[in-house]
Design goal:
Layout: H1 5-10, H2 31-39, H3 42-47, H4 49-57, E1 67-68, H5 77-80, E2 84-87, E3 91-94, H6 101-106, H7 112-115, H8 117-130, E4 136-141, H9 143-152, H10 160-168, H11 170-194, E5 198-203, H12 211-217, H13 219-230, E6 238-242, H14 249-255, E7 259-261, H15 268-275, E8 280-285, H16 294-308, E9 314-318, H17 328-340
Parallel strand pairs: 1-4, 4-5, 5-6, 6-7, 7-8, 8-9
Antiparallel strand pairs: 2-3
Helix pairs in contact: 4-8, 9-11, 10-11, 11-13, 13-14, 16-17
The structure holds coproporphyrinogen III.
Length: 343
Amino acid sequence: MSNFRFLRACMRQSVDVTPVWFMRQAGRYMPEYRALREKHTLLELCKKPELACEVTLQPLRLGVDAAILFADILLPLEPMGAPFEFAKGEGPVVHSPIASRAQIDALRVIEPQEGLGYVLDAVRMIRRELAGRVPLIGFAGAPFTLASYLIEGGKSTHFTKTKKLMYGDPESWHALMGKLAEVVRRYLRAQIEAGAQCVQLFDSWVGQLSPDDYAEYVQPHVKHILGDLMALSPAVPVIHFGTGTHSLLELQRDAGGHVIGLDWRTPLADGWARVGHDRAVQGNLDPTVLFAPLDVVKKHVRRVLDAAGGRPGHVFNLGHGILPETPVDVVKAVTDFVHEYRA
Ligand code: CP3
């Protein structure tokens, strides 16, 4: 049994106070991150373990209960044969988006040590530098979310090309999803072997799908990853995260995860009841609430904590990542408030 309240909550063990961390807790809202970004590109921060380590540790001054590896969900695409860049103001751009079966067949199912060794080096370095202060979360993108970037070439509103392949050529779709799932499975296992004490699977855009389509086109591939990780002994907590997933929660739970992510559109008590109290939940403050006056912020935080009702198995977080303009002092105030809260 762990002494870390974050890991204990993931496994629904009793905790002294509710643990809290924030998705995208290392990033542009922090002045020390922006200072490093003036000197380095985002990919440099990811690829140089000393820099990734430095950025990972930056948010610890806020008092959060976990560190999350600084990396990006898109990193595996490059060694698989689909290079990309982060274009200024546009987000990620994949140079040759997938438009044919031949491109899918050409994608390499890599071993993480091959093209992602720098991430594993960062994990080892961060564990050393953390020296037991808080546990380290590793992560990867889920197959649907990664496929959407590969096919659309970047961010998308309607996911038209992605769904065109999914509906129009299911055989190629499953070939692509199968390759992504196997790479992600190996990658998360490798992060755990390197020292990650928990892993989160980010299926950020899967809420675009109906339950029937999720069950047919996505769930088997997520099960391939999470079924494997859930069988690890000793157990390593696995967080299964998505947004816009109100109609998918039961299917996501069935695909796997000790902890299911909830976004703010699902009231936490309802979402937890549907997921089942034999799983932990993470969430679910609306990230834009952090722009409100502090008394309003606290009202919303209290609402989330009261919905969890002190039941073991709640990890406080936002329903999605921190936005770039978020005031740092509000993030710190929320962290303290969660730690001080008594129902
Ligand atoms: O949480 C953390 O602190 C760890 C770091 C982290 C990053 N990306 C660094 C990053 C994590 C967990 C991610 C995950 C990620 N990356 C997701 C899933 C999570 C989510 O928010 O849904 C997605 C969809 C991506 C892909 C990605 N990377 C996009 C769409 C963008 C552009 C976003 C933007 O606002 O411009 C990125 C860039 C990126 N990855 C940044 C950071 C801190 C932006 C910072 C910068 O430009 O310096």
